[in-house]
Amino acid sequence: MSDARQAVLDRIRASLGGNASEDAARAEYAAIARAYQRAGHLDAAARMRLFVDRLHDYDAVVRETSESELSDAINASLAGSTAPFVTAEGFPPELLPPGIGFTPEAQASVADLDACAGVLTTCTVAIASSGTIVLTHGPGEGARRLTLVPDRHICVVRAQQVVETMPEAMDRLAALGASRMTFISGPSATADIEMTRIRGVHGPRHLEVVLVR
């Protein structure tokens, strides 16, 4: 969290009465009745099938692989690209196949992101019921601009990161507090203009998930 944002939040808390008001608000929030589904009921295989089905519904590409063949699967995803790919800061270098140009995120300008063949990231958690991947922009996930400028996003998701429901995902993310997060459900698309669906307005037109079982 930036110093400026923290300062603003501190002032808001102080104006509300400090920790006492904050504690009361937390207690009030905890007391809210929650009758909706908070935990999944599917087994691991069914949960993965649901996640893949939701991704396909969004026109995302899914490439399933094993941990031992992950590098080969990434290589297959990148095959045929002539422009370099940008890799998120902290993306495991051992997964990058040889013979393909890669630009580290720290060295990529906005122009580089605009011209690149795509970006490679990992994620923090994925939600099967909505086909959503969540980036918290830590190591391997990159800055927010990686999910805005390039035309293609390739994301590595591991089976243990996939939960069934949104509440389960929020439980995993709770420890991060007010950290920046990006929720991605399929390629960027909008139908705001004359109800015509247009892809790539707010982010990549193409999303590919490399799913490690």
H-E string: HHHEHEEHEEEEEHEEEE
Unreliable spans are none
Rough shape? Answer: globular
User: Structural class of the secondary structure composition?
Assistant: alpha/beta
Percent range for β-strand residues? 15-25%
Structure in words:
The chain is 29% helix and 22% strand. By secondary structure, the protein is an alpha/beta fold. A hairpin with a 4-residue loop joins strand 5 (125-127) and strand 6 (132-135). 29% of the residues are buried. The strands form 3 sheets. A 6-stranded parallel beta sheet has the order 1-12-7-4-2-3, with helices on both faces. Strands 8-5-6-9 form a 4-stranded mixed beta sheet. It is built from 6 helices and 12 strands. The chain folds into 2 domains: 1-32, no CATH class; 40-212, NagB/RpiA/CoA transferase-like (Rossmann fold), CATH 3.40.50.10420.
Give me some keywords for this one.
Rossmann fold; 12 strands; 29% helix; globular
Gist?
With 213 residues, the protein is α/β, with parallel strands linked by helices. It has helices at 3-15, 19-30, 44-57, 70-78, 110-115, 166-173; strands spanning 61-65, 85-87, 102-104, 118-122, 125-127, 132-135, 152-158, 162-163, 182-184, 189-190, 198-199, 206-212.
Q: Topology, please?
A:
Blueprint: H1 3-15, H2 19-30, H3 44-57, E1 61-65, H4 70-78, E2 85-87, E3 102-104, H5 110-115, E4 118-122, E5 125-127, E6 132-135, E7 152-158, E8 162-163, H6 166-173, E9 182-184, E10 189-190, E11 198-199, E12 206-212
Parallel strand pairs: 1-12, 2-3, 2-4, 4-7, 5-8, 7-12
Antiparallel strand pairs: 5-6, 6-9, 10-11
